[in-house]
Amino acid sequence: MSIQPQNVILKTAVFTGLALIAFAANSVLCRLALGTGAIDAASFTAIRLLSGAVTLLLILIVRREKSLLPRKGSWISSIMLFLYAITFSYAYITLDTGTGALILFGAVQISMILISVFSGNRLHTSEWLGMALAFAGFVYLVLPGVSTPSPLGFSLMMVSGIAWGIYTLRGRGSENPLRDTAHNFLRTIPLIAILVTLAIKQTQFSFEGIMYAAISGGLASGVGYSIWYAALRGLSATQAAVIQLLVPVIAALGGILFVSEVITSRLAVSALMILGGILLVILGRYVFIYRKAQ
Question: Which of 75, 193, 226, 239 is deepest in the core (most CB within 10 A)?
Fold first, then answer.
């Protein structure tokens, strides 16, 4: 492995930042829709994935992509995308925000790191320390909102985190992030049809709920995941796993900027811990590569 040029590092940093903002926005939209009962979990998931597919397909048409049929991406990635989305929606019916976030990001980090290690990627001491520090900061942030989870909610969110971890790792080799993400979303349509058929009797929605789901799917999910796939080309599996712990911090900062919430000492301390942990992971990797190159 060689050291990346500065322009590639900057591009990766920008894409990563945009993707994390999209993830945070997605979490807020999901909570607004499902937490207020504006829409049921199945309908939210269906509209979210369909709006993502339509948005990305329109972008491909505008860009005059030659291949609009789902010949890129993969069925495995699409199944993981659908599995993540549906279990995430149903899990948040019984979980509060802090508990859900802790289970989700814990599962994401553990699954991605274990898969990476089993694939033969050796982690160095600085990466282990960085992961521990970042996760400790994350736990410190969400701890006040953590309650004892229901067994069903815990299981669903664990599945959601593992599915997202697998989906993320499969995207690291994407040569055309936008096209691959679009085709992954398009392949979820048969699964959406099955979901809607099975859950049609429990359907309930409002205009507000539909709007939340459409924005979540088209922008925060569709465009956001395409940007994330682009960012993954410059990140190791460990870096990708740890960096996602910033999402709750970004969501909290969004509350400060747009909902007039105040900066708490807990948020400041946790943000420093998470950022410090990420810095250890990233610098540790580049120092290792530099020494190996000499």
Answer: 226
Question: In the numeric block, which tokens belong to residue 121?
Answer: 């990627």
State how many domains the chain has: 1
Q: Is residue 47 part of a domain?
A: yes
Show the domain range for 227.
Answer: 6-293
Give tens-digit pLDDT for 241-290.
999 999 888 887 877 776 566 778 888 898 899 999 998 888 776 665 55
Query: Which residue, 28, 81, 43, is CA-closest to 210?
Result: 43
Domain assignment present for 115? yes
71 is a domain residue? yes
User: Where is 35: in which H helix or E strand?
Assistant: helix 6-35
Contact 61, 110 (CB under 8 A): no
Full-model pTM? 0.86
HSE-CB at 41 with a 13 A cutoff on CA atoms is 17
- Report the distance separating Cα 117 and Cα 112, nearest Å: 9
Task: Return the closest-CA partner of residue 58 out of 173, 178, 139.
Answer: 178
